[in-house]
Amino acid sequence: MGTVAIKWVESRLMTGVDSFGHPLTIGSWPEREPQWAGLKPSDLLMLAAASCSAYDVIMILTKQKEPLEGLEVTCTGEQQPEPPYTFTTMHLNYIFKGNLNPKKVERAIKLSEEKYCSVTNTLKATVAITNSYEIIDESLQSAL
Q: Most CB contacts within 10 A, which of 49, 61, 81, 133?
């Protein structure tokens, strides 16, 4: 079980602390809108989905001894236009670096999103989650 905490600083600005004590600034300064001084709460949800899945994918590919050299995950989401602005879709785009087997990459993504990632598995009941990926093998590019 994890515990996080939020402390209101002022206006619409808060600090958060994760279950390991790592701080995070969340919120905006309405007097200076649209300036955000910290992360937007809805962006935190997309970051949680991207990082949770990335963590799983890295672990799976490492166990399979795949030569993963890098990974970036971009998460885009659509929300309803009216409050509570519920997410309706999320798309995770994975960009891998390394001489990776595409079948193993696809399987790692599928295992993460369908079995291991607590965030995507929590969201999938109400949010349509899709994915795409690209593998950049720099060893092939330098050989050209």
A: 49
